[in-house]
Amino acid sequence: MGGARAFVTGIGGQDGSYLAEQLLAEGGEVHGLLLPDEPLGFTPAAVTVHRGDVSDVAATRALLREVEPDEVYNLAAVSSVARSWSEPELTSLVNGHAAAALLESARLCQEATGRQVRVVQASSAEIFGDAPGPHDESTPIRPVNPYGAAKAFAHLAVGVQRHRDLHAVAVILYNHESPRRPRHFVTRKITSTVAAIARGEADTLTLGNLEARRDWGWAPEYVDAMVRAARHEVAQDYVVATGETHSVRDFVAAAFAAAGIDDWEGLVESDAALVRAADAAVSVGDASRARRDLGWAPATTFAEVVARMVRADLA
Q1: pLDDT digits (tens, 9 = 90+) for 283-304
Q2: Which of 18, 73, 147, 174 is catalytic?
Q3: How far apart are CA 284 and CA 127, in angstroms?
Q4: 1, 87, 142, 154: which is deepest, by most CB within 10 A?
Q5: Locate the NAD(P)-binding domain: which residues (predicted)?
Q6: What is the Cα–Cα distance from 218 to 132, expressed in whole angstroms?
């Protein structure tokens, strides 16, 4: 499907920019949706940028008919679990309702043109909540926060549209990082603060729960899984994960090691106010289906993911 015309929502974010780069490198044509006041971020210059809000269903539907894409990637979301607690209505609108509406818009576009439209919904490990892991595609959906609940609604809508002959897939993404991750994410907070400490510009790193364990991978590889999922002959859902867990403390230790600081324990403080409500203690995925059906496997180690982020922040 090289040379495909793609429509990507949330193209200004970490995943959107890496996805655009991959699709453009294949010779594809990329149209991206950005909020009216959103900065371009890392969006490549070759992307045709459209300003709008995915939650404006009528406008987005009209835009999709105008673009007539071969592939649609829905990455637009309220991306912070913490923010979902303070803005649950917005989260349900953007992450849930707007995603379901985009799937319907793609189906209507396919119906009108007679050409297949393939849709990838960026789902999340948060749909599984505190279900025991490792999670695979058959793990019961039982979210424990507003973010997960909204993502679960969109995830289920993918299956509904598959029954209506739409080639729709959900990629269930576990934590995936890069230097393009915004600073309000704990991983980037860690690497940017560690870099500041190494430069003598900060004294301490303040975090919440250091013992929470997550499955962390390298973002460009997860974006590649999205493209593979879109183009696989069978439309089905895929867990995208490394299958390994590390604690926030492990992440901190790896970041200080990458910055050349060995004695770091005294530089880190824990603040109970930063501990999230109803947070799953451990999140880990089983990507066996993606390995088997898509030929996808993570290649970048946990330590290297952290080191790349620290090097970028030091630079």
Answers
A1: 999 999 999 999 999 999 999 9
A2: 147
A3: 12
A4: 154
A5: 7-309
A6: 24
Cα angle 286-215-194, degrees, rounded to a multiple of 5: 165
**What stretch(es) of the chain map to CATH 3.40.50.720?**
5-176+220-240
Asked whether the CA dihedral 284, 269, 276, 54 is positive or negative, the reply is negative
Supply 191's token pair. 């690497």
**Known catalytic residue at 17:** no
pTM value?
Answer: 0.96
Q: How many angstroms separate the CA atoms of 291 and 228, rounded?
A: 11
Calculate the average pLDDT of the chain: 96
Q: Which two tokens stand for residue 118?
A: 């393939």
* Nearest C-alpha neighbor of 176 from the set 313, 12, 305, 299: 305
Confirm whether 147 is a catalytic residue.
yes
| Cα gap 230→23, rounded to integer Å | 12
Task: Report d(CA 15, CA 51) in Å as an integer.
Answer: 18
Q: How confident is the model at residue 277, as a pLDDT? A: 65
Question: What pLDDT is attached to residue 281?
Answer: 76
Q: CATH 3.90.25.10 residue ranges in the chain?
A: 178-214+244-284+300-314
Backbone angles phi, psi at 246, to 5 degrees: -140, 150
Among candidate residues 18, 84, 105, 126, the one labeled active-site is 126
Q: Indicate if 124 belongs to the active site.
A: yes
Q: Which fold has domain 178-214+244-284+300-314?
A: UDP-galactose 4-epimerase; domain 1 (3.90.25)
Whole-angstrom distance, CA of residue 212 vs CA of residue 182:
20
Cβ 212 vs Cβ 218: under 8 Å: no
The per-type count for the chain, helices as H runs and strands as E runs, is 11, 13
Give yes or no for a contact between 265 and 197, defined as CB atoms under 8 angstroms apart. Answer: no
Three-class SS of residue 63? helix
Q: Which CATH class is domain 5-176+220-240?
A: alpha beta
CA distance 247 to 213: 4
Of 125, 135, 170, 150, nearest to 279 (Cα)?
Answer: 125
